[in-house]
From TrEMBL:
STAS domain sequence ranges: 19-82
PROSITE patterns documented for this protein: STAS
Gene3D superfamilies in alphabetical order: 3.40.630.30, STAS domain
Protein name: STAS domain-containing protein
InterPro entries: Acyl_CoA_acyltransferase (IPR016181), MlaB-like_STAS (IPR058548), STAS_dom (IPR002645), STAS_dom_sf (IPR036513)
Domain of life (superkingdom): Bacteria
């Protein structure tokens, strides 16, 4: 009896992992393959390329491993693609309508938006304590908008003057924000989405936010800032750390020395959450439409000292 053997070698490059296999994939070796693919996803890999050049055979148990891994990857917005299969593997996948997993064609050139984001070191994924932070492109934001809306249904706190409690309103608001110049959105993920923060820069000359810009400049002495809105998973055990990391990542990503948000004075729970994340109250903004005058809160990068006079 021939004992099956499968050697597995993994090489990471950013968010992509190349998994090279050598041997045979069957009932004995399939659990090893499953463990290797699952580990890639747990580590925050978003693109898994499996090199089958030196794999002599694969049976239905191996096919099932790849199909399950692909479905799981799709749920966390990742992908699994198989390269250089032998004739037997190609026939197996074609005969089971699974040929879409196979890729013998080089990847298409990325869009200008994706190329720009990948070229910026600030967009590299950061993994800590099992939670990965990564910035989304506008297209990725659109693709994930439904998941973000689900997360926003029960936020810990809203970093905005108006809370959109219906799903449709939130989706329209997110889409409108995504069209603004300089828009940036960062998500926190485990195997699912657990947090999200986004914002856009405001400076002199901003017509739609002129009143906000002038009020912030009067209260803080700064003309340029990043206006943030944030959603944090309400029941995650690390939600405080997630919120802090998301906000600091946005400031670093946009190379901004000041983050600003608005919060109603009656929102005591929100104020407590913001204070735990390092936000400071710098005064009320009068003249805004709606109920009550929102407070302007400011946030500085962690590596910068607080302004004189702040506790």
């Amino acid at each position: 009896m021939v004992v099956q053997r499968l050697d597995i070698h993994r090489r990471d490059r950013g968010e992509r992992a190349c998994v090279t296999l050598a041997g045979a994939i069957g009932p004995v070796t399939a659990p090893l393959l499953r463990a290797a693919l699952n580990q890639c996803l747990r580590d925050g890999v978003t693109a898994i390329d499996v090199d089958l050049t030196t794999v002599g055979s694969c049976d239905s148990t191996g096919l099932d491993v790849f199909l399950v891994a692909s479905r799981y990857a799709d749920r966390v917005h990742a992908s699994v693609r198989l390269h250089h299969p032998c004739a037997q593997i190609t026939q197996l996948f074609a005969g089971t309508d699974s040929a879409w997993l196979l890729s013998g064609i080089p990847e298409a050139r990325a869009s200008a938006d994706v190329q720009h984001d990948m070229g910026d070191p600030a967009n590299a994924p950061v993994v800590r304590a099992g939670i990965r932070l990564r910035r989304l492109t506008r297209q990725q934001t659109q693709d994930m908008s439904g998941d973000i809306a689900d997360l926003a249904a029960e936020p810990v706190a809203w970093l905005s003057a108006q809370a959109y409690r219906d799903r449709g309103g939130f989706l329209r608001w997110l889409a409108a924000n995504a069209r603004r110049p300089g828009f940036a959105l960062v998500v926190a993920e485990t195997t699912v989405l657990v947090g999200c923060a986004f914002g856009f820069p405001i400076g002199p000359g901003a017509r739609s936010e002129r009143e906000l810009q002038e009020s912030v400049q009067r209260l803080t002495g700064r003309a340029h800032f990043l206006f943030l809105t944030q959603v944090v998973a309400p029941h995650h055990a690390q939600r405080r750390d997630i919120g802090h990391r998301l906000q600091q990542r946005l400031l670093a990503d946009r190379h901004t020395a000041l983050g600003v948000t608005l919060l109603l004075a009656t929102d005591k729970g929100g104020q407590a959450a913001f204070e735990s994340w390092g936000w400071e109250n710098c005064g009320e903004m009068v003249g805004m439409p709606g109920r009550g005058a929102p407070r302007v809160l400011e946030l500085f990068p962690s590596d910068r000292p607080r302004r004189p006079g702040k506790r």
